[in-house]
Amino acid sequence: MTADKCKVLLIGSGGVGTIASYSLEYEDKAVVTSVLRSDYAIVKEKGFTIDSIDYGHIECYRPTNIVNSVESAKEYGPFDYIVVVTKSLPDITNMVDVIAPAVTSETAIVLIQNGIHIEEAYMERFPKNTVLSGVSMIGSSNKNGCINHETTDFLRVGVFPNENVPKDKQDSICQKFVQIYNTGKNECVFDENVEFSRWRKLVYNATLNPVCALTQLDVGRLEIFGAVDSIIRRAMKEVIAIAASDGVQLPESVIEFMIRSDDPVYYKPSMLIDYEKGNYMEVEVILGNPIKIAQKNSVDAPILTLIYHFLSVLQCKIKEEKGALIVPKERPVAAK
Amino acid sequence: MTADKCKVLLIGSGGVGTIASYSLEYEDKAVVTSVLRSDYAIVKEKGFTIDSIDYGHIECYRPTNIVNSVESAKEYGPFDYIVVVTKSLPDITNMVDVIAPAVTSETAIVLIQNGIHIEEAYMERFPKNTVLSGVSMIGSSNKNGCINHETTDFLRVGVFPNENVPKDKQDSICQKFVQIYNTGKNECVFDENVEFSRWRKLVYNATLNPVCALTQLDVGRLEIFGAVDSIIRRAMKEVIAIAASDGVQLPESVIEFMIRSDDPVYYKPSMLIDYEKGNYMEVEVILGNPIKIAQKNSVDAPILTLIYHFLSVLQCKIKEEKGALIVPKERPVAAK
Fold first, then answer.
1. CATH homologous superfamily of domain A197-322?
2. Which candidate from B226, B307, B328 shows the least CB-CB separation from A313?
3. In what residue span(s) does the Ketopantoate reductase N-terminal domain sit (chains A, B) (predicted)?
4. pLDDT in tens, B57-88
């Protein structure tokens, strides 16, 4: 009977999102409606092909419902959870607007996304809904509907506290999601301290990610070429200081942990791969928001600030490549 | 009679150096011995082909003597001037060692090169010789012996003051070089204040040059994408502050002058072109030396410092591409 099952709307069925979708449906505890864009036709026809370290080889995985817009997903609702697994690009796409048509008073929104303070726009727009944080540790990529899932799915899910919703209710909505997501093959845990998890991950994401993108070097070369000493450790200290000003005490040991976390691989972080492919980068949620917090709390962060300015320029470059920003044929000059 | 003519040894016959060589020989006032490396065979055979805004089209220009090493140049000496027109790359090539075999007690060394404090290594090694500064404003490039000279040759030549040589003697050696270099087609002036000229040029070279290289964007796009406001002006202010600590007062107006100096062209500075071609960049003399001066004089320069660290990483990347730096097959990991 589907009546007992949770109804999940999933936005963003890439490498991470498709494994999330598969996990949610694995033990028949949820019905997933997946909104697909570029892969819609191919998945409708052939389903996803998955090679997964957790689940093995799977041919023709189709989420229960496949749609190409949130509007057309509504017939499969109302949804208990809307799970957003896209890149977090508020400067490019207003995801709050995108999901709005499918949000009911009982819908919980699950943001399996990078960055800090990403929940604010959702909580402002849907003040009485529960918003959950998903911090994912997974290696998984999607190429035209073929999912290559290389490192095991470890997901921390917690509550972005909302004073308009009883804490018990938020916690139980979160616990239920954790219970559904867990398949025995993956690991999904209740995250008691969402902000801690997010700031901790940012120690890597706000430093190694953008510096690798900017220099177009993997983490190993960055270290051999001296930038871990000259740039990365200092930038990581700035992240820790900003986190502290935001109420999150990270131990100093997280710096060495993150620097060594890719050993012994010459690892290319996702932002570098995005830049190489000409895809948008999560500049605002990974760097812009921390910088804003630093400014608000008068924390000195010269290195992160400059890295942010550099990445903002690269984002414009990608916009130009995509035709989303038109550079005039003649260079505009200042009035004399 | 060649007896009355100045003897010049020229190192670095690229776009700038070949025009310098041609200018010095133009009115038969000097005999140039040119040390060629990669273009030696082609120039020996066919000479340089020059398209020059100052001199027109010239087929088969051969400096009087063409050699492939400083050692083999010695038979054409002793030299009145050794003119160094290579890129200034002390981290790659020790040019002091390169020219040493041809330096006599009466040789003046002319550095037509970018950067600050570039004379120190020469004055340390040749403490009793006159060292001259050449600050060139020219657009000229070399491709396999074909010189494309697009903007007129304007050269400021001055004295790097040397307390071991009478000031009159240094000045007259400099004035004589200016007189030889001037052809009526170009403009070569005596530079009364070498340090001012060099720091002034650095306002552009230490900021727009490396930031364009790092972002792989021309100056026009950098401005449209916001980086002139977010990065360049602030970095230029740091250059001005470091210059002041080094005894050179630059007017604030130089900032807008430099930002507008490429109007209305989407101009790619030389460092960007070097990076695109996989050539070494003048990181140390353009950024490293100013940073050292900032540190010595306790001037805060966080933006230039970070740009320097980024460019140092890119220089390593070029070294790896050229095989001058070997990255181990396995990423080295820290001992546990």
1. N-(1-d-carboxylethyl)-l-norvaline Dehydrogenase; domain 2 (1.10.1040.10)
2. B226
3. 8-161
4. 999 999 999 999 999 999 998 999 999 999 99
